[in-house]
């Protein structure tokens, strides 16, 4: 099994259609011991969904904008396991004003929330977990939507994702000396709770169906989950700072006209 003996932290499990849920399920099937994180009103939802996993895991309170929660996560995992082998960063949020096409008029108060939660949180999570990985190294995998170009209506969340991509590269640079790998999986669009919050999301479905050479199923997170599990395993020991596309090949095909 790819992850036999691994101890993993999985963030972002909200529904059983979420990518994080599929990663958690597949990680357990591949031999990993996992904990989930959640906080606030979402925690009850996470607790219900966690019961559907092969082995219902414990849930740790974590608001990634809270330094107290991040410190408590480190302490909890040190007591629980002594160390950590990997983590999935599946965290993103942008206020309504940051999406939908009024890019220029979004205020800093809203934009700062999007950047903090969706990009800076990768560094925050890495800072919390790195001390627990320094003996044997580890792998941090983040979920991304490739933002090397501008997308309709994605607006400041697109900027936040671009910041996430840069953050991953700098973390890869600084954590490599401790054999900690940091990579992103750039998923094609999937019908998740987060996707439903993006105005005009249906537009992506039409575009992907026409351009992705391998085709793309918006209702199937399994291909993305498999890529995440592979990166969390020992099968990519010399890969870091990478953006791995799991999008049916869409990113490689130029738009007509």
Task: Describe what you observe in this structure.
The protein has 257 residues and is an alpha/beta fold. It has a single domain (7-252), classed as Rossmann fold (3-Layer(aba) Sandwich). Helix content is 40%, strand content 14%. It contains eight helices and seven strands, in the order E-H-E-H-E-H-E-H-E-H-E-H-H-H-E. It has a seven-stranded parallel sheet, sandwiched between helices. It is globular. The model has no long low-confidence stretch (mean pLDDT 94).
Relevant terms:
alpha/beta; single chain; 40% helix; seven-stranded parallel β-sheet; 257 residues; 8 helices; Rossmann fold
What is the CATH topology? Rossmann fold
Weakly predicted, low-confidence segments: none
DSSP, total strands = 7
Gross morphology is: globular
Beta percentage is 5-15%
What's the layout of helices and strands?
Layout: E1 7-10, H1 19-29, E2 33-38, H2 42-50, E3 59-61, H3 67-80, E4 86-89, H4 108-129, E5 138-144, H5 155-175, E6 180-187, H6 193-196, H7 202-211, H8 222-232, E7 243-246
Parallel strand pairs: 1-2, 1-4, 2-3, 4-5, 5-6, 6-7
Structure at a glance:
This protein is of the alpha/beta class. Helix content is 40%, strand content 14%. The mean pLDDT is 94.
């Amino acid at each position: 099994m790819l992850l036999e003996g691994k101890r993993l932290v999985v963030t972002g499990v909200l529904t059983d259609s979420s990518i994080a849920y599929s990663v958690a399920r597949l990680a357990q099937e591949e031999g990993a011991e996992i904990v989930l994180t959640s906080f606030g009103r979402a925690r009850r939802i996470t607790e219900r969904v966690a019961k559907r996993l092969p082995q219902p895991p414990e849930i740790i309170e974590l608001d990634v904008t809270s330094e107290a929660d991040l410190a408590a996560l480190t302490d909890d995992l040190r007591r629980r396991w002594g160390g950590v082998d990997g983590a999935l960063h599946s965290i993103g949020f942008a206020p309504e004003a940051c999406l939908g096409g009024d890019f220029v008029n979004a205020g800093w108060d809203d934009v700062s929330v999007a950047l903090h939660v969706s990009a800076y949180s990768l560094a925050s999570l890495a800072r919390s977990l790195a001390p627990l990985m320094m003996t044997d190294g580890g792998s941090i995998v983040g979920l991304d939507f490739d933002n090397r170009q501008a997308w309709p209506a994605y607006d400041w969340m697109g900027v936040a994702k671009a910041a996430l991509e840069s953050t991953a590269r700098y973390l890869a640079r600084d954590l490599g000396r401790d054999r900690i790998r940091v990579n992103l999986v750039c998923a094609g669009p999937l019908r998740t709770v987060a996707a439903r919050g993006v105005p005009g999301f249906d537009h992506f479905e039409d575009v992907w169906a026409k351009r992705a050479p391998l085709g793309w199923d918006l209702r199937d997170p399994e291909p993305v989950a498999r890529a995440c599990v592979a990166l969390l395993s020992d099968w990519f020991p010399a890969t870091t700072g990478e953006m791995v596309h799991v999008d049916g090949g869409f990113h490689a095909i130029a738009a007509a006209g």
